[in-house]
Amino acid sequence: MTAYRAAVIGLGAMGMGMAKSLVTAGIDTAGCDLSEDARAAFAAAGGRAASTPAEAARGADAVAIVVVNAQQVEAVLTGADGVLDALSPGAVVLGCATMPPDTAVSLAGMVAAKGALYLDAPISGGPVKSAAGKLSVMASGSAEAFAKARPLLDAVAEKVFELGEVPGPGSTMKMVNQLLAGVHIATAMEAMALAIKSGLDAKTVYEVITASAGNSWMFENRVPHVLDGDYSPKSAVDIFIKDLGIVLAQGQQLDFPLPISETAFRRYQQAKDMGLGRQDDASLIKVYQRDGGFPLPGNAEDEG
Predict the structure, then answer these.
(1) How many Å apart are CA 149 and CA 93, to the nearest integer?
(2) Which residue, among 267, 245, 90, has the nearest Cα to 185 in the 3D structure?
(3) Alpha carbon distances (Å) from 121 to 53, 63, 104, 194, 291
(4) 173, 250 Cβ separation under 8 angstroms
(5) Residue 133 DSSP SS3
(6) What span, in angstroms and rounded, lies between the C-alpha atoms of 246 and 13?
(7) Distance of CA 5 to the CA centre of its chain
(8) Percentage helix, strand, coil, to 5, in the chain?
(9) In terms of domains, do 190 and 158 share one?
(10) Which residues pair with 135 in a beta bridge?
(11) At residue 300, does pLDDT exceed 50?
(12) Structure confidence at residue 304 (pLDDT)
């Protein structure tokens, strides 16, 4: 074990993988989550379970906050038994949630007021890469923040992109990534819907497209959910309503039109209106099914 100590707040699909990767790397790691089951699972993996963010952050050199949105990050920092109550001077906080760039700057100011460092550090790669310690981190912050976070970053990431010396560019880059991810999922589901409606076999379409120029990472990753009829949330529709909402708000702030993002956002909103907000984002194809009346693979009701 090293003398370096870390904490991960939020032991969901991404945070749990990060926390376990830290333990595997030999770093003394505390994990905190609202779920008692998640805390117990992390303790069983060799981590220290903490019941509050303050307990997890106490004595830590680096604290990664891996929650859903900026509001949750702020609550973890400033709420009762929050991280700021226990943060050591000179420690670094990594804000890993997707959030507006201006919000990242504001949160960094709160942390700096406590004599600590902030790294604007959104993550990408999904639960599989998180569990393998192979995330991509889109980070910006001071050289001191990067140096303090380095052992944590080395344990959880395959690639760390250093995008600037102040908070903000990291979140801007993640916003751009999420624009592409959200649009790619929407177009993948539109393409599959057209193929099925036109009489093509869905599995054959997947085999052909993943070997052809029309492929994308999201097509290759999400279409198997449709083929299996498995819409349990790996990444939910609600996530892209949030993330594309951030994209569109930035466009408004810059007076910059984003028509393709707007169209994709409306599709996610239609899925939410159908009660699919907490389903996997591949369930976007069900909007097309509703409008087109075609059977989906792996769905007994549709096939019967």
Answers:
(1) 8
(2) 267
(3) 18, 11, 9, 38, 39
(4) no
(5) coil
(6) 22
(7) 23
(8) 55, 15, 30
(9) no
(10) 157
(11) no
(12) 31
Q: Which of 150, 166, 182 is the last residue of a domain?
A: 166
User: What is the pLDDT confidence band of residue 124, given thresholds at 50, 70 and 90?
Assistant: very high
Cα–Cα distance measured from residue 77 to residue 110, given in angstroms and rounded to the nearest whole number? 9
Of 20, 129, 148, 174, catalytic = 174
Domain enclosing residue 158, as ranges: 5-166
| In a shared domain, residues 183 and 118 | no
What does the pLDDT look like over 225-245, one tens digit per residue? 999 999 999 899 999 999 999
pLDDT exceeds 50 at position 62: yes
Tens-digit pLDDT profile for residues 242-296: 999 999 999 999 999 999 999 999 999 999 999 999 999 999 999 999 999 999 9
Are 179 and 192 contacting, i.e. CB atoms less than 8 angstroms apart?
A: no
Strands (E), the chain: 5-9, 28-32, 48-50, 62-65, 92-95, 117-120, 123-124, 135-139, 157-162
- What is the rounded distance in angstroms from the CA atom of residue 5 to the CA atom of residue 59? 7
Give the CATH number of the domain where residue 55 resides.
3.40.50.720
Residues 146 and 239 grouped into a single domain = no
pLDDT band, very low/low/confident/very high, at 1 (cuts 50, 70, 90): very low
Tokens matching residue 137: 């981190």
Shared-domain flag, residues 135 and 265: no
109 and 201: one domain? Answer: no
- Concerning whether 174 is annotated as a catalytic residue, the answer is yes
- The rounded distance, in Å, linking the Cα atoms of 50 and 131 is 20
Chain length of the chain? 304
152 lies in the same domain as 181: no
